[in-house]
Amino acid sequence: MKEARYYRVLKNKLVQCTICPRKCVIKPSEAGFCRTRVNMDGKLYSLVYGVVSSIAIDPVEKKPLFHFYPGSPTLSISTVGCTFRCPWCQNWHISQADATKEDLSIYDNYGPEDIIEYARRTQCPSISITYNEPIVWLEYSIDVAKLAKENNIMTIFVTNGYASDEVLDEIASNIHAANVDIKCFKEETYRKYIKGDLKPVLEFTEYMKKKGVHIETTYLIIPGLNDSNEEIRQYCKWHYEHLGPETPLHFSRFYPQYKYTEAPPTPTETLERAWKIAKEEGLYYVYLGNVPGHSYENTYCPECGKEVIGRYGFYITKWNLDEQNRCKFCGAKIHIAGEKWKETPRYWWFL
Prior knowledge:
Helix content is 23%, strand content 23%. By secondary structure, the protein is α/β, with parallel strands linked by helices.
């Protein structure tokens, strides 16, 4: 537990948290919406600083980031809690855990310097704050990111993008890449199912892109909820206009999870339809997730259409780019941050 950095002191020992647009005003002895931040006698404390629920080494493609140091390992860490209440969350056991009631002693406690040492020892060029929402862990996430930068290690956020305008600069100046989950493209769906708002998520994503953070987005397609041609096309138009055609978009397959089991798994045909819509709207790099072996996991040159990166799941199987990340067939520049990792292991180890 540690005093939070992102809050304001109000009258009568009230405090206002400023990490997300909800900006909870919290009474003494009570917690905010995310259930990770508690008012203790007029001061706001993070219950999860240093509390690490998971630590593992993943391929960076698992985040998913297909255009950021392809094939590299990333040290993945998480805590508990979230700023949203997605009823279909695949990591609900940690994202929807209540830190005010959970026995946090069952998890390991790591200082930022411990995480950096793990990354160095395992030769990971990046650290990913992932599995649950990094914004509820913001003090710790930023402390890790700053120390990582001093040690030439990059930081990745896998995030819902629901951050307040007061913390955008701090995030943008300390992370190198982010995959932002776009849950749908309707405000009413965000409010009904997710208990949040779409507008701040879009603003976060656009701001990070403008500040030079490598951005990729993921759109989980849920049958009957956000899978209409119109909604998908509207999002693709926004993506093209605000993030650019070179920003990768991942359409991910839904599987029934947690509290949302009434919808079936997303049909492959629906994912393929979304892929075609995105290409019609001019996006260069569009991918399908949770369908290992599908040809739309691969990267195709936007100029000649040839396959330049072949993948199976999270693993690279083919590489047709030169040292400057240009297509070997036509010479077109493929928009990739960093170089391909020297080799992609077939197996990943856990700490």
